[in-house]
Amino acid sequence: MNKSELIDAIAAKVPDVSKRAIGDVVGAFTESVSDALKKGDSVTLVGFGAFKTGKREARTGRNPRTGAEIKIPAAVVPKFSPGQGLKDAVNKTKKK
Prior knowledge:
InterPro entries: Hist_DNA-bd, Histone-like_DNA-bd_CS, IHF-like_DNA-bd_dom_sf
Pfam families: Bac_DNA_binding
GO molecular function, one term: structural constituent of chromatin
CATH topology: HU Protein, Chain A
CATH superfamily: IHF-like DNA-binding proteins
Helix content: 40-55%
Family: Belongs to the bacterial histone-like protein family.
Number of strands: 5
Radius of gyration: 19 Å
Strand order of the largest sheet: 1-2-5
Order of helices and strands: HHEEEEEH
Keywords: DNA condensation, DNA-binding
């Protein structure tokens, strides 16, 4: 699902709100999460999950074309940990 499909799905569940307004909210959400992560903060949505950052150490890799060793620098990377509510929703079995 891409951003426009997400906006369409939300608009189907909330018909009183325009797609433009939903797009603005989705954009504001992603920007707010990004800003918090840039500051080193985490964002927790109880029942859904938590966005946080982690450190990736510098390491040596290989160029797949040449096989030459390359140095991959250390980096701060975003991470998402799903909450129990999301895990339960994804693993919910359908009754026949």
